[in-house]
Amino acid sequence: MRVLITGGxxxxxxxxxxxxxxxxxxxxxxxxxxxxxxxxxxxLTRLKQFQxxxxxxxxxxxxxxxxxxxxxxxxxxxAEPSVLSGxxxxxxxxxxxxxxxxxxxxxxxxxxxxxMIFISTSRVYPIAKxxxxxxxxxxxxxxxxxxxxxxxxTREGITENFSVQGPRSLYGxxxxxxxxxxxxxxxxxxxxxIINRCGVITGPFxxxxxxxxxxxxxxxxxxxxxxxxxxxxxxxxxxxxxxxHIDDLFSLIADQLQNFHLYQxxxxxxxxxxxxxxxxxxxxxxxxxxxxxxxxxxxxxxxRIADVRIYLTDNSYATSINNWKPKHTPESVMKDIYxxxxxxxxxxxxxxx
Length: 353
Ligand SMILES: NC(=O)c1ccc[n+]([C@@H]2O[C@H](COP(=O)([O-])OP(=O)(O)OC[C@H]3O[C@@H](n4cnc5c(N)ncnc54)[C@H](O)[C@@H]3O)[C@@H](O)[C@H]2O)c1
Fold this sequence. Notes:
Layout: E1 2-6, H1 11-23, E2 28-33, H2 43-49, E3 53-56, E4 73-76, H3 92-112, E5 115-121, H4 127-131, E6 135-137, E7 142-144, E8 153-154, E9 157-158, H5 170-188, E10 193-198, E11 200-202, H6 214-223, E12 228-231, E13 240-245, H7 246-258, H8 260-263, E14 267-270, E15 277-279, H9 280-291, E16 297-300, E17 310-311, H10 316-322, H11 330-343, H12 345-352
Parallel strand pairs: 1-2, 1-4, 2-3, 4-5, 5-10, 10-14, 11-13, 12-16, 13-17
Antiparallel strand pairs: 6-7, 8-9, 13-15
The chain binds nicotinamide-adenine-dinucleotide.
């Protein structure tokens, strides 16, 4: 099996690359990345340790695809992944990478006769519609009401039937636009493909920052005794996300590589699910227990642009295909991140503190 991963030095890309190499004996894995994300360069040593060939390149540049090896699969995990991207600065980089970059990947896949797995996002779903879901509030979090009142939402979370009509952030729009083109190439241009709409993904080796990778950032700020803020929702910290451990994402991708025909042409939501969900307030408790540190957390009442109150993934469709289910709990996810942080605290301090 020969696999090329774009964004292969990033959090998702590097972890998938290493796990594929370990799991599929004899596989050849190529990691293609322009190292735009701060901290991705730290993954190069890991990639080398596992005999993964790093190719420095940019998905925006057609010419960078010309010399790439022929592969059986391309996993597109390169992106400007921040939901705030392009909202206060030029959206050029976002659009060129997340949309044009995907088209370049598709053309390469077509030439290579490769199958494509796309890491999309739950951010394709419109903000206003998510925030219209009926909810209840308890001491530590918002909950989806027993009767959510929006099509495509169950008590477990958002299904693939949720509407995609309405603004969703430029980031989400570039991903949705890419999804449309992937479907066209799948149907008319012989590029078999799978689209995974992932919720928050986290785990060791994520270079968390305020606008992306907040779960790792939350723990790191506790670890390094810094400060944080609950933004929006009245400064309550009750906003909820399900979190997908990178190992659980890998188990899904591994099944897709092995049983591609079961998933081909499908778009599926994949996330940690209700059992692996936390509010920021609950996350604070977990971080305090792990680090023993209590840090100042400001309560900022103003809403943050493009934020949503609750996002939970209803994984039933993904599970129905070949019985994939995430296994982690918030505690086990955070324990894994803590071990990584603790082992590498000196190296990570300038990036995560
Ligand atoms: N982390 C999450 O919570 C999450 C959730 C849903 C979807 N995703 C998607 O998963 C994928 C991976 O995200 P991540 O969390 O690993 O982010 P990341 O920033 O760690 O990884 C992305 C990688 O892409 C590289 N990159 C950026 N622009 C590039 C370009 N023009 N050419 C080549 N490489 C480029 C970066 O250097 C980085 O290494 C993205 O497509 C993202 O949209 C992530």
